Amino acid sequence: MAENPTITICLMAILFITRLASTLGKSKSWTGLLPPQIQTLDFARHLHVEPDAIKSVSSDYGNIVHENPAAVLYPSSIEDITSLIKFSYNNYTPFTVAARGHGHSVGGQAMASNGVVVDMTSLRNHKNGTGITVSKCPSLGFYADVGGEQLWIDVLHSTMEHGFAPVSWTDYLYLSVGGTLSNAGISGTTFRYGPQISNVYEMDVVTGKGELVTCSSHTNSELFYAVLGGLGQFGIITRARIALEPAPKRVKWVRMLYSDFSAFTRDQERLISINGRKQKNALDYLEGSLLMAQGPPNNWRSSFFPSSDIPKIMSLVTQHAIIYCLEVAKYYDDGTRHIVDKDLQQLLKGLSFVAGFMFEKDVSFVDFLNRVRSGEQKLHSQGLWDVPHPWLNLFLPKSRILEFNKGVFHDLVLKRNITTGVVLFYPMNRKKWDDKMSAVIPEEDIFYTVGFLHSSGFNDWQAYDHQNKDILKFCDKAGIEIKQYLPLYNSNKEWINHFGSKWRNFRERKAQFDPKMMLSPGQRIFNDI
């Protein structure tokens, strides 16, 4: 029987209309939030509005703020990101866009309520991402071109295959390159090598206009300095060129305990005064922390102390209420193996720690840098990783640390008796930071970072949040000009105070690179303007 062409055409038309209706039906959930014509664009196939996709980006490591975007973009290429932002920029009613790396922010900074969250990790699944490549040129030496979506742990492993590694790190390596460079990227290596933002040669950035721009200190320098430490306000980092140095093989890792705060800080400041990048007799890492009775000496950051020594350490803590722990590291390789102990002994000579309370380990370079991972895995296995984290991170002028120790550590934190997590306290050298960048630090030559890295239950995180606010109130009342790191503010006035003399330049850069104020709304910097 011959086939009727009219019937065939009708069936095809019905099939087309059915599919079109299905597509339009799916778009209805977007119509009140995103322009319907977005579905006609090439990147639309990578936009997802399913509940699971929305849920995956509506929270973060902090587990306190929860906001739903209209959609999630899983980009397959940098072009998907530029197209998305350009579409929003050219739209009559622009929608907000936030880049999300590993989701390790603690206050909703990588969220975009009713906007679009770009899941940068998706680029790692596609060849169109920058990836990680190691190269060399006469002017820079060895460097790595790294996609903004890459995790620092993968940067470490990839560069180590070539015998090289970056010199500035964060304590936790499962963070995205774009994420840490948008803040600063700090740890015990900062006193000598500067924050991670001070170790970047060049970047590719997608601006708030949807333009992909290559920038450095020599080319498009205004964008370069704006983005580094810029809290995602000026563009999305899609590639960074990172400085590399020959990688060591092993690490001498030492902790010393102090009962006297003044001795503790005096020794820290003496050690960070030897800070030349090429100085052979300098430490490679220095951090400090607090031990208190309500928290164990070993925690998720590392199980450093031998179990046989825990009783005597806790006895010391009980005796003094607060014990200050100075932690240092010296790298070495085959060429320096025979002198590292002598060098370390000379560096630590004359320090005023409590006699008999010095502890040492010898570990591989990779194990040292990745020391937090085992603690994370243990907490995951116990269901204690995905809990609220009401953190507070501050930069504190050196001239006010004695007041802070008494007013905060002793009179506030110790008396509240709720702090069971990590409390960090260690100094940095201002000269290792570039003031042209957006990151804000105290004016003094030496300043301290203070980190209250709390974990809590879902029903009691408010108690830690109240303590954080009381710490800020104490500093304000005492006239201590702290600066928040990973800042959390809710009003434009607070942000103006935070940036201080940098505010005018910050605002002008925003007008230049993101004039419609689309990027990173979760920071809440320009939301009430």
UniProtKB/TrEMBL annotation:
GO terms for biological process: cytokinin metabolic process. InterPro entries: Cytok_DH_C_sf, Cytokinin_DH_FAD/cytokin-bd, FAD-bd_PCMH, FAD-bd_PCMH-like_sf, FAD-bd_PCMH_sub1, FAD-bd_PCMH_sub2, FAD-linked_Oxase-like_C, FAD-linked_Oxidoreductases_BP. Its EC number is 1.5.99.12. Keywords: FAD, Flavoprotein, Oxidoreductase, Signal. GO terms for molecular function: cytokinin dehydrogenase activity; FAD binding; oxidoreductase activity. Belongs to the oxygen-dependent FAD-linked oxidoreductase family. This is cytokinin dehydrogenase. It comes from Populus trichocarpa.
